[in-house]
Specification:
The complex is a heterodimer of chains A (143) and B (169).
Chain A: H1 3-15, H2 20-30, H3 43-52, H4 72-90, H5 94-137
Chain B: H1 3-25, H2 28-44, H3 55-77, H4 89-99, H5 102-112, H6 115-126, H7 131-138, H8 142-165
The chains are: A mainly alpha (143), B mainly alpha (169).
């Protein structure tokens, strides 16, 4: 390769005006064993870039299925669970219902007793009436 | 997009993402994590893949952003030792010995560059992307890319000549 051309390319390279094709030429030149003494200082640079490009990741990339889940449905499920929980806890339990029923039945029974008692006092009213009438007919002293 | 089709799309450039991540994060493990993360994100948004002008350019941009974020959060999370206060003779001597190997010398020089120059040098001189592609990936105009590239190359040159004059090369 013509040395003058390489020198010119090196110059352009440091100005950032070489094309990728020209940079390839430079890497090829510096990969040789024979490099002009005044350019040898740049050799590690170009060799390093060629070497660095060969490095590969040892780790194999794999898409883990289900690793990334859609959590949107989870919030829906949580909302439903909470709502059901609140509904159950606010609803009277079976025991409470039984107690309520017993209470109502007791109240009814007491009312029934009360009514019957009142029936009894109604009958006593008749007795009073009878007493008064009797007193009118039979003189009190005759008794 | 099916899984096989997706893998077929990303396989040709996945190592480029890895190398860019490693350039920035240095650690191989962290670079692999970065690549994995970027590709999984791409897969999760596979319905949008058709809308990207270039999937590869998009993935490079995502990798760059991911790595810069990692570096920022690392900086924020750790107290950094300030090394400028003292010089450890042993370490610098050891560095000199290591630096005799031109690959590790170049690695060291690359590491010392500012992030943006590192990225541009990686994309151009290692991955051989065109200016138009790099300017799309970095959202910079091509002239700015060229200027930063030239600056990065000249810094590398200076460092190399410095070392070369010490008898390394």
């Amino acid at each position: 390769m013509e040395l003058a051309r390489i020198e010119k390319l090196v110059e352009k390279y440091f100005e950032g005006t070489t094309t990728t094709a020209e940079e390839k030429e430079l890497r090829a030149y510096f990969s040789q064993d024979e490099v002009a003494p005044h350019l040898v200082a740049y050799r590690p640079m170009f060799r390093y870039f060629s070497e660095a490009r060969k490095e590969k990741s040892e780790k194999e990339f794999r898409i883990k299925p289900g690793k990334r889940r859609n959590y949107a449905w989870l919030s829906v499920a949580a909302t439903v669970a909470i709502a059901v929980g609140i509904w159950f806890s606010s609803r009277p339990s079976a025991e409470e219902k039984e107690a309520l029923l017993a209470y109502q039945e007791t109240v009814e029974a007491l009312y029934m007793i009360g009514e019957n008692l009142n029936k009894g006092t109604d009958k006593i009213e008749y007795l009073n009436e009878f007493e008064e009438t009797k007193n009118k007919i039979l003189p009190v002293e005759n008794r | 997009m099916k899984q096989a089709e997706f893998l077929h799309t990303v396989m040709p450039f996945k190592d480029k993402l890895f190398r860019l991540a490693k350039r920035l994060l240095v650690s191989t493990e962290e670079a692999e994590d970065a690549m994995q993360e970027v590709l999984l994100k791409l897969w999760a948004n596979k319905s949008k893949i058709g809308t990207y002008r270039s999937v590869e350019a998009f993935a490079v941009t995502a990798t760059k952003n991911y790595c810069l974020d990692r570096l920022r959060s690392k900086q924020a999370g750790n107290l950094k030792l300030v090394h400028s206060n003292y010089t450890d003779e042993n370490i610098s001597l050891q560095r000199e010995i290591e630096a005799r190997d031109s690959v590790s010398l170049m690695q060291e020089i690359m590491e010392s560059l500012p992030e943006q120059q590192k990225i541009i040098l990686q994309l151009r001189d290692v991955e051989q992307y065109e200016f138009e592609e790099i300017s799309e990936m970095l959202d910079m105009n091509p002239t700015a890319v060229r200027v930063a590239l030239s600056r990065a190359r000249k810094t590398v040159r200076e460092e190399l000549i410095k070392k070369h004059n010490y008898g390394v090369g």
